[in-house]
Amino acid sequence: MVRPHTLILKQRGHIIGNNQHHAHPSEIGERRLWWAVSANILLTLAQVIGGLISNSLSLIADALHNFSDAASMLIALVAIRIGRKPPDQLKTFGYKRAETIAALINLTTLIIIGLYLCYEAIMRFIAPEEIEGWTIVIVAGFALIVDTFTALLTYSQSKRSMNIKAVFLHNVTDALASIGVIIAGTLILLYGWTWTDAAMTLLISGYVLRQGFKEIPKVIHLLMEGTPEHIDIDEVIAAMEIQYGVINVHHVHIWQLDERCNALEAHVVLDKDVNMDSLKFNLKQMLHDKFQIEHSTLEFENDQCG
User: Is 222 a residue whose pLDDT tops 50?
Assistant: First the structure.
């Protein structure tokens, strides 16, 4: 006789086996991400050289931003490779959280860079320096082309993958930052407004800090095994307690194993006449279908135990 909960595991194993014939969106877009990393590293070098020649802080700020994007993509790619490793005796849940740790490293670096750029911009307001406008415009124009190219590399896959969509949005905002640097260089050429370079640096660093402080709480929440944002524990308990044969549900914990996999642990008090295997099957199926909880551990208690 095949137990209901065993049937679920077999069904899931069958689904996983079938999905192995279709590459994950992150895997499909991996080659394009490598191209994007290479393009951003070359662009960073060009912007740093151009920034040093023109004495433009905004160009160097944009270079650091592009470098952080290249580094974040590289770390993300390495984390994806690590995350594919199967569970073992040391990591029984697998290595998926490698991607989360990579995100924490990237966001922390982004915040540090943003704070440094703010400091440098303020110092430029206090002690202005001569800036070569033409170099800024030419290098920033080249950066705009590269940023647009890298955005196009990731556009198609961004529709099917949250991770690649984040990379795509980063490249789009990089393109917007390049437009800002071009505007600053043009104003310096036309009116000699060297302060616009420091002002644009503040805008770029402000955006970098905004992105960092907006995203890092989500990463920390996942690492702290917080309840997924889209799941209400009270709603889950209510949905479990309305199942036939369930008297009470308590000691409920819901967390995320990684960005895409939710897990639950709970104690379920049973009516003495209910079939435990059938109820377990129904509960696990409901949790999976209604709340996208992939991994559930249920401990059953008899009502007579008090």
Answer: yes
Q: What SS3 class is residue 272?
A: coil
Question: Which residue in 84, 72, 62 sits closest to 136, CA to CA?
Answer: 62
Using alpha carbons only, give the angle 104, 44, 123 rounded to the nearest 5 degrees: 80
Residue type (1 letter), 61: A
Q: How far apart are CA 268 and CA 246, in angstroms?
A: 7
Record the pTM. 0.70
3-class DSSP assignment, residue 262 = strand
Assigned token pair, 44 = 């960073």
Q: What is the mean pLDDT of residues 185-189?
A: 86
Q: Residue 139 and residue 86: Cα distance in Å, rounded?
A: 45
94 conformational bin, left if phi > 0, alpha if psi -120 to 50, beta if neither: left
Query: If you compute the radius of gyration of the chain from its CA atoms, what whole number of angstroms results?
Result: 26
Q: How confident is the model at residue 56 (pLDDT cuts 50, 70, 90)?
A: confident
Which of these, 134, 150, 129, 120, lies nearest to 43 by C-alpha position? 150
Q: How far apart are CA 51 and CA 178, in angstroms?
A: 13
Angle, nearest 10°, between helix axes 30-54 and 133-158? 170
**Which pLDDT does position 47 carry in this prediction?**
80
- Per-residue pLDDT band at 200 (split at 50, 70, 90): confident
- How many CA atoms does the CB half-sphere of 8 hold within 13 Å? 18
CA distance linking residue 129 with residue 222, whole number of Å: 45
**Averaged pLDDT score across all residues of the chain:** 79
Coil, helix or strand at residue 109: helix
Residues in the chain: 306
CA atoms within 13 A on the CB side of 287: 27
Cα 259-81-72 angle, rounded to 5 deg: 70
